[in-house]
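[recover] target loaded
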């Protein structure tokens, strides 16, 4: 390019130079020959100077252009990097103006609220959040504008019947004059932490309820013994055909039922006193069945037990194993609203050297898409307050701790070719093997 310019300039200069020198030759010796000589040299020099200047100017402009392109590219790359950072994060990121309208938001936020960023930009905060939450957030945004400091808060957001806890940080964004021009919000989903927190609180509650139940059972046990003792004494005073005798027998029957419930509660509570290394499955299931039998009856659930006495003891703490069976029974009962059949069987598989416990129900079953999540912590399909989603997770933890396995098979009304219901199989290591 610059070469072409130079060639151009030199050819432009050469023509007047040749003409001037020719004319100088013609006027040699005269005064005007000096003028022609100086013109002959001066004009080309001006052209050459101008050409060199033009060349430099062009070169500088070219370099500047290149520099600008490089800088713009670097800026574009850096902007792209930050944009992809903001876009790929699984946090809620959005900016708000003083009027509480959305200036920008990342795709994660837009997706979460069921739309695209362009659908929400320019809209008030209440398009994402409930009126109440939006009002609280606007108050915080106002504080940021007023005091120019970050504020943090937690909110509950309800979308598609799901509650999500958000921990939100509102930060000021300033212009060149350091004036707050908008507010940046970064929020994180803390629902799992909240659930865990609540779970810990309810675990504490359960533990104290257990102690309370054991205390109450103990208190009731003594007067019950006295009542039964006096019934015995009174029964001796009446003839069997007497109506009073029959009435006393009814009182005795109900008192014995109370005693049975209380004894089950007591034995269940007593297990917590020290973890055992081995567990008699037969006893463990019998005890747990004693605790739940009444409530199963009330819910019209028939219980069929297939227990063989004399099975080898298995590796595991008896109380924890009872917790596993209680979870499985509760899940089965929960799936058979209005009644059903619950079967529990224990067998010893000599080939595999394992004790197998099978809990089968004919309830509504587990949907295929839920199957791989049932052992996840907090996975529940039950209504708020009815399920914690920890039953199978905890059971899985206990069973695997003692080198056992827990598996599940299920079919729902979507698979009519198979009988509807759920079967959970637990296998445990027998004592002899250790
Ligand atoms: N026997 C069963 N029948 C039908 N669904 C079941 C059964 N056992 C477990 N489930 C499903 O697995 C989920 C997780 O069970 P679990 O961990 O015990 O938690 P939770 O009972 O608190 O929901 C349940 O919400 C339910 O959807
Ligand atoms: Mg459960």
């Amino acid at each position: 390019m610059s070469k072409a310019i130079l060639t151009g300039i030199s050819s432009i200069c050469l023509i007047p130079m040749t003409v001037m020198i020719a004319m100088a030759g013609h006027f040699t010796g005269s005064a005007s020959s000096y003028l022609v000589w100086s013109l002959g040299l001066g004009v080309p020099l001006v052209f050459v100077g101008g050409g060199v200047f033009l060349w430099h100017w062009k070169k500088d402009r070219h370099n500047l252009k290149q520099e600008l392109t490089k800088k713009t590219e670097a800026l574009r790359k850096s902007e792209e990097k930050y944009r992809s950072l903001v876009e790929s994060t699984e946090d809620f990121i959005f900016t708000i103006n003083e009027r509480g309208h959305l200036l920008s938001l990342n795709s994660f936020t837009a997706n979460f609220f069921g739309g695209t960023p362009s659908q929400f930009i320019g809209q008030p905060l209440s398009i994402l959040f409930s009126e109440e939450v939006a009002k609280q957030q606007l108050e915080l945004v106002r504080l940021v504008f007023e005091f120019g400091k970050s504020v943090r808060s937690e909110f509950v957001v309800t979308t598609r019947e799901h509650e999500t806890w958000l921990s939100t940080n509102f930060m000021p964004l300033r212009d060149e004059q350091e004036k707050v021009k908008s507010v940046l919000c970064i929020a994180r989903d803390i629902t799992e932490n909240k659930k865990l927190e609540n779970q810990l609180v309810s675990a504490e509650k359960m533990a104290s309820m257990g102690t309370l139940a054991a205390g109450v059972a103990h208190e009731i046990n003594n007067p019950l013994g006295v009542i039964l003792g006096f019934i015995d004494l009174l029964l001796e005073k009446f003839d069997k055909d007497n109506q009073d005798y029959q009435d006393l027998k009814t009182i005795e029957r109900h008192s014995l039922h109370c005693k049975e419930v209380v004894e089950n509660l007591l034995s269940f509570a007593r297990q917590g006193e020290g973890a055992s290394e081995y567990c008699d499955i037969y006893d463990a299931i019998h005890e747990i069945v004693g605790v739940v039998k009444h409530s199963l009856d009330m819910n019209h659930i028939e219980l069929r037990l297939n227990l063989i006495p004399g099975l080898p003891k298995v590796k595991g703490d008896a109380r924890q194993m009872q917790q596993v069976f209680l979870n499985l029974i509760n899940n089965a009962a929960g799936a058979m609203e209005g009644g059903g059949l619950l079967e529990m069987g224990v067998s010893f598989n000599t080939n595999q050297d394992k004790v197998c416990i099978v809990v089968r129900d004919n309830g509504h079953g587990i949907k295929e898409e839920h199957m791989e999540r049932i052992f996840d912590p907090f996975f529940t399909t039950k209504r708020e307050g009815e399920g914690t989603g920890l039953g199978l997770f905890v059971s899985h933890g206990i069973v695997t701790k003692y080198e056992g396995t827990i598996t599940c098979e299920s079919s729902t009304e979507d698979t009519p070719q198979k009988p509807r219901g759920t079967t959970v199989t637990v296998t445990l290591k027998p004592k002899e093997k250790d």
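[recover] notes: Residues 21 and 317 are 118 Å apart (CA to CA).
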